[in-house]
Amino acid sequence: MALSLKVAEVFVSLQGEGTLAGYPCFFVRLSGCNLRCRWCDTAWAWEGGREVPLKEILERWRASGISLVEVTGGEPLLQAGVIELMKGFLKAGATVLLETNGSQSLKGVPQEVIKIVDFKCPSSGMSAYNRYENLRYLRRPDQIKFVIADREDYLFARKKIVELDLVRVAEVLMSPVWRQMDPVDLARWILEDKLPVRFQIQLHKILWGERAGV
């Protein structure tokens, strides 16, 4: 097991997004990101952080008494030791979520980990970094997330969902960019197109405010 990881923060909150939204969750946010999305809500985690031993992270999780764990960032897959961390959580009986920006290979991620993969839309400025080969590593419990800022993003996402038959690959989610996209418009577009995706709003933003980049 790798000795340590560069960590931005470790905390407990309610899961704010995805199919497990609303459940208490133990979050490990790793530092460092290779992308610079225009609407990123955790830009403060792009750099910095402190080295924390994997043993300490696992001990803090055990003390929390919470079975659901999310490893997020930043971009957690930039640190090789994250694989060992996830294996450690799994071995100890946790349900493990991995939130990734989709630019890094999922090949080494344990199958038991529920992978939440961002599919970058044009407004992010990072759509060229979508790693399409990662689709082969996804299974039905995994999630593909489109963050939508405008109509162009929605049309891009709709096209990719149809072209790549994404609803057969994993659960597909659509979320409006906080305070940039009217959730009602996005909900209406989904209904008009009868698009088989899960609409979501960031629950943590509603509960805790702007700083809650969970």
From TrEMBL:
UniProt catalytic activity = 6-carboxy-5,6,7,8-tetrahydropterin + H(+) = 7-carboxy-7-carbaguanine + NH4(+)
Q: What Pfam families does this protein's entry cite?
A: Radical_SAM
Q: Name one GO molecular function term.
A: magnesium ion binding
Residues that, per the record, bind substrate = L14, Q15, G16, R29, T72
UniProt cofactor(s): [4Fe-4S] cluster; S-adenosyl-L-methionine; Mg(2+)
Query: Which GO terms of type biological process are on file?
Result: tRNA queuosine(34) biosynthetic process
Q: Does the keyword Nucleotide-binding apply?
A: no
Q: In which pathway does it act?
A: Purine metabolism; 7-cyano-7-deazaguanine biosynthesis
PROSITE patterns on file: RADICAL_SAM
Quote the record's binding site residues for S-adenosyl-L-methionine.
W39, C40, D41, G74
Q: What does the note accompanying the cofactor annotation read? A: Binds 1 [4Fe-4S] cluster. The cluster is coordinated with 3 cysteines and an exchangeable S-adenosyl-L-methionine.
PANTHER family the UniProt entry points to: 7-CARBOXY-7-DEAZAGUANINE SYNTHASE (PTHR42836:SF1)
Q: What is this protein called?
A: 7-carboxy-7-deazaguanine synthase
Instruction: Supply the source organism's classification.
Output: Bacteria, Pseudomonadati, Thermodesulfobacteriota, Thermodesulfobacteria, Thermodesulfobacteriales
Encoding gene per record: queE
